[in-house]
Design brief:
With 289 residues, the protein is α/β, with parallel strands linked by helices. It has six helices and 17 strands. The chain has one domain: Ribokinase (UDP-N-acetylmuramoyl-L-alanine:D-glutamate ligase, 3-Layer(aba) Sandwich). Helix content is 22%, strand content 27%. The chain is globular and about 45 Å long.
């Protein structure tokens, strides 16, 4: 099943589940594919999302210009988000069908960005290893966690089992690896570009294993949900435009910082808004030894 305008071939392909996120008193659509998709659209890209979800999921109008290809599924991946004694708690209540990458190889078009965006292990690691593109970016969080009695728990060591050499760039957070920088350094040696997001502190960009700290502009945080996904999309978009990793990471920090100033995806900036913001936020980068 496909929805959305399809007048021109997409140039940003995202693969991953669109989800239902349940909170204490509300629910909304979520998933990396949602936040990265809206970010890429607002940055001027033609977006296609390959996903799987049930008929009960209503997508936001902000995805109206994206082409959504939905695999058959009798359920929607559903997370319950709550606050526990040690911070945010995530429970997986339902999981949609897996997503196969094999049909993509016969589609006859090559997007400038392929974004592998699993949230619940819905993409086969073996298939992802064989999927190459001019720019293939992976946000591997959905491969790096497990469920114990429904509760989602991090599995940082999974990072070493992923086919990092197959991809152009990997974007993850310090939370994904539970702050294990030695693990990140080993991963950085296996992928050309590794961007590690650090919340309000910005990111650390590894280029062929060499780290550079890039701070984020100061912002008034309202909702940080999806900020890492926004960063990944902005980084990939800018990388295909400039082929300059530091420029791209700096741009992505700005877009992500702007996105947290409103609930959900409401504050995600357009390309025009960014032109004015970038003029106000020249900030340095710091190379690590």
């Amino acid at each position: 099943m496909a929805t959305g305008a399809d007048s021109a071939p997409p140039d940003y392909l995202i693969i991953g589940h669109l989800t239902r996120d349940l909170m204490a008193s509300s629910e909304r659509v979520g998933g990396t594919a949602l936040y990265a998709g809206i970010a890429a659209l607002r940055l001027g890209r033609r977006v296609r999302i390959l996903s799987a979800y049930g008929d009960d999921l209503t997508l936001p109008t902000e995805l109206g210009d994206a082409v959504i290809v939905c695999a058959d599924s009798d359920r929607t991946t559903t997370f319950r988000i709550s606050q526990g004694e040690t911070g945010r708690r995530l429970d997986l209540l339902e999981r949609a069908s897996a997503i196969s990458l094999n049909p993509l190889r016969d589609m006859g078009w090559t997007p400038s960005v392929v974004h592998l965006a699993p949230v619940a292990g819905e993409i086969s690691i073996a298939e992802a290893a064989g999927f190459r593109n001019t720019c293939t970016v992976a946000t591997p969080q959905g491969w790096m966690r497990d469920t114990v009695d429904g509760r989602v728990v991090p599995q940082p060591s999974m990072l070493e089992r992923l086919p990092l050499e197959s991809w152009s760039a990997v974007v993850l957070s310090t939370e994904d690896v539970q702050g294990d920088w030695s693990l990140l350094q080993r991963a950085a040696a296996r992928v050309p570009l590794l961007a590690v997001t650090r919340g309000a502190e910005g990111c650390t960009l590894f280029e062929r294993g060499h780290p550079t700290d890039i701070p984020a502009p100061v912002t008034a945080e309202v909702d940080t949900t999806g900020a890492g996904d926004v960063f990944a999309a902005a980084f990939a978009v800018r990388w295909t435009e400039t082929r300059d990793a530091r420029t791209s990471a700096t741009f992505a920090c700005l877009v992500a910082a702007r996105s947290v100033e409103g609930p959900g995806w409401s504050a995600l900036p357009s390309r025009e808004e960014l032109q004015a913001l970038r003029a106000k936020h020249p900030w340095p980068v710091e190379e690590r030894e």
